[in-house]
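Researcher: We plan to redesign the surface later, but first we want a full-length starting point. Tokens attached.
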């Protein structure tokens, strides 16, 4: 939902920013048409921005600092713009402040999207680069071991108990994910099948692989 609201924010912002272009190009008919809906679109944009912020709060821990900072700055400039528009009485000063803040918001929006895109590409690359080493349980010492795997958007930390070359239990200590909670079912599959490399959960492939890699990393500690 957060991503959808983000795209809606961007679309509504583009509608507002088009008015700047139409005015610069002296497209009076289009400019007047957009002016009729300017306030309505502005209200929609503000509401979408705050809804977007609310829905993305739970996943901010998984985002890069550049995504977070650019988003915070955009909201800050938006609030500042709203406050100034309702407090400044001088028309020329109000228009000047409006244009400056609108440009700063545009920079933040572009930076936010660029940072998110770069962050997402890096996440996909990390997931693609996950390689399993096919650890043999026969060579694992008895004990309880912890392992983790972090690919950015998804992070998993598990604890696994090994006894007599068997997996006694797998405990999930932490699992940060977007929509991959159902992948946690593989923990029971690992114990039931007595192997790490069970089938992934359909619809949660990335989380499944991250969890399996975390289990593998835990088991490897028993060979040290």
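Model: Full-length starting sequence:
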């Amino acid at each position: 939902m957060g991503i959808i609201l983000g795209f809606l924010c961007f679309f509504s912002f583009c509608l507002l920013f088009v008015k700047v272009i139409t005015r610069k190009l002296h497209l009076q008919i289009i400019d007047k048409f957009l002016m009729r809906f300017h306030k309505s679109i502005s209200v929609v944009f503000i509401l979408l921005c705050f809804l977007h912020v609310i829905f993305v709060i739970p996943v901010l821990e998984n985002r890069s600092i550049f995504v977070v900072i650019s988003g915070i700055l955009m909201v800050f400039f938006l609030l500042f713009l709203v406050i100034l528009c309702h407090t400044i009485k001088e028309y020329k000063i109000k228009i000047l402040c409006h244009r400056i803040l609108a440009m700063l918001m545009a920079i933040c929006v572009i930076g936010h999207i660029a940072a998110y895109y770069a962050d997402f590409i890096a996440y996909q690359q990390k997931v693609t680069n996950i390689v399993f080493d096919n650890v043999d349980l026969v060579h694992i010492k008895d004990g309880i071991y912890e392992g983790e795997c972090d690919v950015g958007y998804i992070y998993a930390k598990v604890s696994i108990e090994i006894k007599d070359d068997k997996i006694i239990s797998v405990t999930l200590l932490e699992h940060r994910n977007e929509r991959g909670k159902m992948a946690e079912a593989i923990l029971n599959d690992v114990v039931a099948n007595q192997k790490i490399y069970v089938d992934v959960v359909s619809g949660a492939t990335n989380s499944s692989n991250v969890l399996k890699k975390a289990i593998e990393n835990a088991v490897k500690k028993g060979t040290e």
